[in-house]
Amino acid sequence: MTVTARQEPFKSRWGSEQNQKDWLEQLELTGLENVRLRLNHHTAGSGGSIAIGTQTSITKGFIEEWVAWHDQRKQAAEAARYAAEEARHAAEAAHRERVAWWTKAAALGAIAAAVFTLIGAVAAVGQAVVAWMALPKPPQ
């Protein structure tokens, strides 16, 4: 996994800088889950040593910190995904609310248009009736 500006590089208080570089390379090659399995089967304290790959003596405390660092990164990534998903759901809900509001507005507009059309039709019939009544009556 590459380190971005938001991710802190792995740092440990265990071992020299060169040892840490060599150990880190071996741990990355071995993989997190394989290292976790090896760590879980080792009963020594944090100052003890574990052989992993070509490294015959990696300080257990270094490995514990490395595993914890990976777990923290995974947890942070999951939290970021969860926050993004929540934001997406909130945006979708807001969009649905806007669509519902405009749908209601369009329905009310259609109802108003229908009412005014009916009023116009009634007025036209009324005018026709008045005009018909105003016509001269034929002689009887």
> Rg, please?
39 Å
Class from helix and strand fractions: mainly alpha
What gross morphology would you assign? rod-shaped
Proportion of residues in extended strands: 5-15%
Helix content: over 70%
Distance between the termini: 106 Å
How many beta-strand segments? 2
> What are the low-pLDDT stretches, counting only 5+ consecutive residues below 50?
1-5
Give a short account of the largest sheet. Answer: 2 strands, antiparallel
**Overall mean pLDDT score?**
86
Across the major sheet, the strand order is: 1-2
Number of helices: 3
The ordered H/E elements are: HHEEH
Task: Give a topology summary.
Elements: H1 17-30, H2 32-40, E1 49-52, E2 55-59, H3 60-134
Antiparallel strand pairs: 1-2
Structural write-up:
The chain is mainly alpha-helical. Helices cover 70% and strands 6% of the residues. It is built from 3 helices and 2 strands; from the N terminus they run H-H-E-E-H. It has helices spanning 17-30, 32-40, 60-134; strands spanning 49-52, 55-59. A two-stranded antiparallel sheet has the order 1-2. 6% of the residues are buried. Mean pLDDT is 86; it is low at 1-5.
Keywords:
rod-shaped; 3 helices; mainly alpha; disordered N terminus; 140 residues; 70% helix; two-stranded antiparallel ribbon
Task: Please outline what is shown here.
The chain is mostly helical and 140 residues long.
